[in-house]
Write a structure and sequence with these properties.
It is built from 11 helices and 10 strands. By secondary structure, the chain is an alpha/beta fold. Strands 3-2-1-4-5 form a 5-stranded mixed sheet, with helices on both faces. The chain has a 5-stranded mixed sheet with strand order 8-7-6-9-10. Helix 5 crosses helix 6 and helix 5 runs antiparallel to helix 8. The radius of gyration is 20 Å and the shape is globular. The structure holds 5'-O-[(R)-(carboxyoxy)(hydroxy)phosphoryl]adenosine and zinc ion (ZN).
């Protein structure tokens, strides 16, 4: 089954054709990062305008790269939420128009379920055993789930304030690093000492909840105090702050994930979402997973960690095969879609 998938929930315009859920036949992603770097973050109106300019060229590029016509596509899939409303609408309306013109079924996909599905890309479906604990850490969400099958997904916890990626982005701004901040902080941290400063690890009553606003505030006050004494931050101080901050965030994420893995005696651990591109986080979770003897999985290629259409095509395939129930457990779809088996016209 070949699925043409569209993702426009934030600042990436991405289109992919995915075969049988896990094989990526082609993908084109246009990142708006340079545009948003000018303002230090995503401006929703700018994002939706950029999507509306790039979406058709991205679709045309993927189709012509593969030499495909509409008859090669079995199903259309589109991210239907959560995300920036104006950005989502561009993808959703384009997908609806295409479904109508091509006479193909269309399926709405939850963005977070898409991130979860990304770990099956470039793998065999059987590689990852259930039950599993999955941590989705991005700029807009930070959740822990127990997944017993493709049709059983239970949210164990979420962030009480910022998402981990959001905290990375805000600390990047405090360190005068450009948007998007996560990779920049991580890069700067390579030259720093992660033990130079001790940032608080949030201790919450709920073992599966997260909180990152305290650490962000601690970074802010530390920078203020250093500047009050010496007038500015040295390059080494910036790198040390980045490394110490990254260490603390990764510790908090890994700790909660391991707690859930032990409590639910799972067979696999899964890390997904933009922050899963972070090398330190991957290595901490890998080390911890070895300790408890549970295999760990993250997207095979870094391009499938951040927003991309291939993960939406993968998720749509699982929804199609497993009767859409995984999607139904995430009640954030903005628009209701027909079932895959229905035709739109
Ligand atoms: O999944 P994603 O592309 O978009 C959302 O759904 O939010 O995630 C983007 C987030 C941004 O906050 C970005 O700074 C963060 O993921 N990110 C990283 C890294 N790469 C991306 N955070 C830490 N380290 C990275 N290497
Ligand atoms: Zn995302």
């Amino acid at each position: 089954m070949k699925i043409l998938a569209i993702e426009t929930s934030c600042d990436e315009t991405s289109v992919a054709v995915v075969e049988n859920g896990v094989k990526i036949l082609g993908m084109t992603t246009y990142s708006q990062a340079l545009e948003h770097a000018k303002t230090g973050g995503v401006v929703p109106e700018v994002a939706s305008r950029e999507h509306s300019v790039k979406i058709i060229p991205c679709i045309e590029h993927v189709m012509s790269m593969l030499g495909y016509t509409s008859s090669d596509i079995d199903l259309l899939a589109v991210t239907s939420g959560p995300g920036l409303i104006g950005s989502l609408l561009v993808g959703v309306e384009t997908a609806k128009a295409l479904a109508f013109a091509w006479n193909k079924p269309l399926m709405g996909v939850n963005h977070i379920y898409g991130h979860i599905a990304s770990i099956w890309l470039e793998r065999s479906e059987k590689d990852v055993s259930f039950p599993l604990v999955v941590l989705t850490a991005s700029g807009g969400h930070n959740d822990l789930y127990l997944m017993e099958s493709h049709s059983s997904l239970k949210k164990l916890g979420t962030t009480l304030d910022d998402a981990a990626g959001e905290a990375f982005d805000k600390v990047a701004t405090l360190l005068n690093l450009p948007y998007p901040g996560g990779p920049q902080v991580s890069h700067l941290a390579e030259q720093g000492n992660s033990k130079a400063y001790h940032f608080p690890r949030a201790r919450l009553q709920d073992p599966y909840s997260f909180s990152f606003s305290g650490i962000k505030t601690a970074v802010k006050y530390l920078i203020r105090d250093i500047i009050a004494v010496s007038g500015q931050l040295s390059q080494q101080e910036r790198a040390d702050i980045a490394a110490s901050f990254q260490e603390a965030v990764c510790d908090m994420l890994a700790e909660k994930m391991m707690q859930a893995a032990r409590d639910y005696e799972v067979k696999s651990l899964v890390l997904a979402g933009g922050v899963s591109a972070n090398t330190l986080l991957r290595s901490k979770i890998e080390a911890a997973s070895q300790k408890i003897g549970v295999p760990y999985f993250a997207p095979v290629s870094l391009q499938y960690c951040t927003d991309n259409a291939a993960m939406i095509g993968c998720a749509a395939y699982f929804q199609y095969c497993y009767n859409q129930s995984a999607c139904n457990l995430l009640p954030s779809d903005l628009i209701s879609f027909p079932k895959a088996s229905d035709s739109l016209v």
